[in-house]
Amino acid sequence: QDELMRIPLAGIVAILSRNLPGVASEKSVYDFVLRWADLQYPNLEQRREILSSSLLPMVPLARSMTNVILIDQPSCIINFSLKREHCSGSFPSGSMRSPPFYRAGHGFFLSAHRRMGPSNFFFLIIQKLEDKGLVGGTLDYEIEVKTTPSLEFTTLWRRTTTTGCRQGFGCRVPWPEVIPDDSPFFIDDKLHIRVHVKITPQP
Q1: Overall number of domains in the chain
Q2: What secondary structure letter does DSSP report for 167?
Q3: Listed residues 15, 40, 67: the one ending a domain
Q4: Which of 9, 36, 172, 200 is deepest in the core (most CB within 10 A)?
Q5: How far are the Cα atoms of 74, 96, 193 from residue 190, in angstroms, in the given order?
């Protein structure tokens, strides 16, 4: 890990271009890319540009989810879209992750996955990057999806917490409600998600 962290951008791109048969999971590749970029590019805007243009498009776990980031101080609004075919389980790892987004010095990403078995749900979870510590202050977040026939965003989950956040937070939707051909959640075979995150620091 230490040696890999010192490899320049061109070397990382060359490694990601391979099939990487010895890698345990796509999640480990995704996590490594985020850690490498965080170390090599301390400037947030530069790091975001390198991740979005050069690295994450080569990571299958992140390639299935596209996003547009809108910064509205002191909160951020992020729009994501997921294809129906990916939501239905075609991604081999069982989950998808967005490119990271940042608010008040903390990094987050959106994770989408389906859990089979007796609890057959589709999960949308906002998760923190692992190495950024506890979120202090008040955290407001909301997850919305665009639905038919109104083509307006509908709130799936909204919460305010003052207990800090170290892990993930989000919502689940019963899978039989998500995937049918007449599902209100898909427009042109895409699931459109909007995430609001606001962090108000402690006084």
Answers
A1: 2
A2: S
A3: 67
A4: 36
A5: 29, 14, 10
Give yes or no for a cis peptide into 74 (omega within 30° of 0). yes
| Co-location of 33 and 75 in the same domain | no
112 and 196 together in one domain: yes
What distance in Å separates the CA atoms of residue 8 and residue 147, rounded to the nearest whole number? Answer: 44
- Residue 92 is predicted with a pLDDT of 44
- Paired strand residues for 82: 65, 191
Nearest-5° Cα angle at 144, 74 to 189: 130
Terminal CA-CA length for the chain:
39
Residue where one domain finishes, among candidates 52, 67, 82: 67
**Average pLDDT, whole number, for the chain?**
79
Question: What region, left, alpha or beta, does residue 181 occupy, with left being phi > 0 and alpha being psi -120 to 50 degrees?
Answer: alpha
Reference 100, options 75, 65, 141; nearest CA is 65
Whether residue 115 contacts residue 121, with contact meaning beta carbons closer than 8 Å, is answered with: yes
Q: Are the beta carbons of 198 and 74 closer than 8 angstroms?
A: yes
Give the residue-averaged pLDDT of 126-138: 71
pTM for the model stands at 0.70
